[in-house]
């Protein structure tokens, strides 16, 4: 890799992966949320060009099959494993983790890309609010259960990574409400606020994992960029995005939204994930938050940069999932 490599807001995942091809070679990577036409799919697709193994996950078996076929059509040499998992179900997360742990390969990179759908209030079978379960509680448990396999990928010259796809939208709330992680009344539910809280939890978890990991595992969170997807046209949500000046009356993205917000393509949106997973220059910055393929921790809202809050969230999450994520073994 050339130290002169630079990437920015218009860089694509392909460009970043090409730049770090030597770092990706030989790696085994798991990416959650890899449905077609999403940044998780694009992340998996470009990694598959160089990696030893790419494990793709999703909750819908048919969508997962289509994603695998599309990657294989583009990268015939790809070594792909498909894993169906409902991250909103702690029981199913345990089942899926057991399947991964039964494999012989170590796991070099775990990328948490999946997110629960923004929309109507929904409880999981275990009584957890769905967005928080899919976006935070399930991924936390999955990380815990896969940690021995992740740690086994470490060498004297390589530290494995856990990556959380968060968002700049974490600023759109007053921070994660730790008291409602496990239980949330429908009357108190606001879909956009809850989505923002999940992203706060992702950022706090990455920073706390880095602190506790002490170089055993590196963790990062990131903002992928503002990418137009079907969610912007969902019933009940379009008015919110219209009011924010992001989409017009026709539901299509406004070319130049106000402020510093600029739309990205899906390939551009996946670029920062690739950087977080493979850029070796990030090794000294475990716990960092990335934007446009670069460290941007200084842009994190105060409520998501507080180490005391991060520690409280970690402890509360362990209590809910019934598992302690320990690095001292």
From TrEMBL:
<dbReference type="GO" id="GO:0016491">
    <property type="term" value="F:oxidoreductase activity"/>
</dbReference>
<dbReference type="InterPro" id="IPR036291">
    <property type="entry name" value="NAD(P)-bd_dom_sf"/>
</dbReference>
<dbReference type="InterPro" id="IPR002347">
    <property type="entry name" value="SDR_fam"/>
</dbReference>
<protein>
    <submittedName>
        <fullName>Short-chain dehydrogenase/reductase family protein</fullName>
    </submittedName>
</protein>
<comment type="similarity">
    <text>Belongs to the short-chain dehydrogenases/reductases (SDR) family.</text>
</comment>
<keyword id="KW-0560">Oxidoreductase</keyword>
<dbReference type="Pfam" id="PF00106">
    <property type="entry name" value="adh_short"/>
</dbReference>
